[in-house]
Design goal:
This protein is of the alpha/beta class and 567 residues long. It is built from 17 helices and 17 strands. Helix content is 31%, strand content 11%. The strands form 4 sheets. The protein has a 5-stranded parallel beta sheet with strand order 8-9-10-11-12. It has a 5-stranded parallel beta sheet with strand order 14-13-15-16-17, with helices on both faces. It is globular, with a radius of gyration of 25 Å.
């Protein structure tokens, strides 16, 4: 049996297989065609179901183990190297240099435009045209004017299948384990606010049994009685202090439209809230740091530099500033502080200095440090109209949904080419397409297809998260999530099996078989549940009960309740 990653590679189209083939030290030149490279020393980690094992994995995870993709629309990416370089001199001789261990303090940056060669030649770096900066490695000889630098082929993580997979069932066990054994820091001194949370915890754990609630639909939840009790206590007890520190545009300037709109809407609504927020931080149970990971990238990142150290440093300086000005951060090590960030880079930017905070992240990947039971999987919502985020809401009834499955989108990442290889133009009831043409008409066609399909395929791209999950719910289409190691939104409270289909990436050849095997009555139940759960995934200019703003805040509150430790 092939290892998991190799098994997925075998599903790729043959031409893609060639591009993704691993090359040993003795192999020829690489087929790299990126404009610049950040070369890093990589380590391999496996994530399993054992709590101690997961703790060990996450504690050993380096910043450099998080891949670097600039933007889906830009297409500039980095390549992670492991084995070292092969140097060629003018006489044609070659030698393998030892691997370079690169840290944020000792970066290795190659600035170049990679020349495209024929497949037999591969891609080389011509020393006469390009510069190579090798910090702290004076012992490495320079490349001669007619020489070349050829890196061994090592694809970035997001272009390769994961080496291990944490299934939904394993995530369930991790959640239960983390509920029973909190990993939060014990506070340095006691607080009345902590006592209030601990009292709320006892009430949540022994709620009155809820029957036939008119506002909540029980099948959607793990335990609707606990959720209802927790939500009521949140409304009654929770107080949040929003830090005023931080300068625009990174802080206090939400972006309400586009792919990363979730963090913007949360910033806007949290800062305008007068029900949960307090002006006196001594009265707060939780502390919110209102920065935008999108604006952090737009403001500080230097295009094509492939260096995010300054982004992380900016947040480090901010956390040190509030720690020096207020005593609250130091009391818990940041465990009662939270953030909401939707950009793919947020897990990297918030590591170390904000590691103990509650992170509401769209990129909820257990392999890059997302902690089940503490962190919150934030739904990624693609908002097309900031003035009317509910535009085009809804879809056709089940009897008018004649397409079995629909997908259309770009081909970034390793998995989507596999999806198209198997299902593009293969079955009349499977509309699995590539990118749709630009323009308003094409966008409307995309919406209409989702509104008329039974199942909407939500595959991973570069990262595990996808806005299609919320889009499917928005258009009342049952989402089919195909993204290994992705923690679904509000995982701590929602029962995703009741309104979605979750399929392992390796099962993509059996996609249609799996879908047609779902009995019609089961589909009708799931589609009804999609309509019922829809209200929990909607933004409103003025928040309403149980909407996306309140669900996000509740999950942050809920996870804090079950992670808090008494002094």
């Amino acid at each position: 049996m092939l290892p998991y990653g190799n098994a997925l590679l075998s599903l790729l189209p043959s031409e893609k297989n060639k591009e993704l083939e691993m090359v040993s030290e003795s192999s020829g030149a690489s087929n790299l065609d990126n404009e610049s490279l950040l070369v890093r020393k990589m380590k391999n980690y496996n994530v399993g179901i054992d709590d101690d094992k997961e703790e060990k994995v996450n504690s050993n995870l380096n910043d450099d183990d998080i891949d670097f993709v600039e933007d889906e629309t830009v297409g500039n990416v980095n390549v992670d190297m492991e084995e070292g370089f092969m140097m060629h001199n003018a006489s044609g001789e070659s030698a393998i240099l030892p691997p370079l261990i690169v840290t944020p303090d000792k970066p290795l940056l190659i600035e170049s435009v990679v020349e495209k060669k024929s497949e037999s030649e591969g891609s080389v770096y011509n020393g006469s045209d390009h510069r190579m900066f090798l910090n702290e490695r004076k012992d490495i000889p320079s490349v001669s004017s007619n020489g070349s630098l050829v890196p061994n082929k090592r694809k970035m993580r997001c272009l390769m299948p994961p080496k291990s997979v944490t299934t939904i069932n394993e995530m369930e066990r991790l959640l239960v384990g983390h509920r029973a054994r909190s990993r939060a820091m014990r506070p340095r001194w006691s607080s009345e606010r902590d006592k209030e949370i601990l009292t709320a915890k006892l009430k949540i754990e022994s709620p009155p049994i809820l029957k036939n609630d008119r506002e909540l639909y029980a099948p959607l939840f793990r335990n609707v009685s606990m959720f209802k009790r927790s939500y009521e206590l949140m409304e009654r007890v929770l107080k949040v202090y929003v830090y005023k520190e931080g300068q625009k545009p990174i802080f206090h300037q939400p972006v309400l439209k586009g792919l990363y709109a979730s963090e913007g809407w949360f910033i806007k609504l949290m800062e305008r809230d007068n029900r949960f927020t307090v002006k006196d931080p001594r009265k707060a149970h939780l502390f919110y740091m209102p920065f935008s990971s999108l604006m952090l990238q737009r403001t500080l990142y230097v295009p094509n530099s492939h260096n995010r150290t300054n982004l992380r440093q900016y947040l480090k300086d901010y956390s040190e500033k509030i720690a020096a000005k207020y005593r609250f951060w130091n009391r818990t090590g940041g465990a009662d502080h939270f953030l909401a960030a939707c950009h793919d880079w947020a897990p990297y930017e918030t590591r170390h200095y904000m590691e103990h905070c509650i992170k509401a992240l769209c990129n909820a990947d257990v392999t890059i440090g997302f902690k089940i039971g503490r962190d919150v999987s934030l739904p990624e919502t693609y908002v097309r109209s900031a003035r009317n985020p509910l535009r085009d809401l809804g879809g056709k009834p089940p009897s008018q949904r004649h397409t079995l499955a629909f997908y259309a989108g770009s081909m970034h990442g390793y998995f989507r080419p596999i999806l198209l290889k198997y299902w593009n133009d293969k079955e009349p009831d499977m509309k699995i397409l590539g990118p749709m043409p630009p323009g308003v008409a094409s966008k409307m066609n995309y919406i209409h297809q989702m509104q008329r399909s039974k199942y909407c395929i939500c595959p991973k791209g570069y990262e595990v998260n996808s806005p299609r999950i919320v889009e499917a719910i928005f258009y009342e289409c049952v989402p089919v999530i195909i993204s290994d190691n992705f923690v679904p939104p509000f995982f701590e409270v929602l029962n995703w099996e009741s309104f979605s289909v979750i399929i392992a990436e390796k099962e993509i050849p059996n996609l249609r078989k799996i879908l047609v095997s779902i009995e019609e009555q089961k589909y009708l139940e799931m589609q009804l549940n999609v309509r019922k759960v829809q209200k929990h995934f909607l933004w409103h200019a003025k928040p309403v009960k149980y909407d996306l703003f309140h669900m996000t805040l509740h999950s942050i509150w809920y996870n804090r309740v079950f992670q808090i430790k008494s002094r």
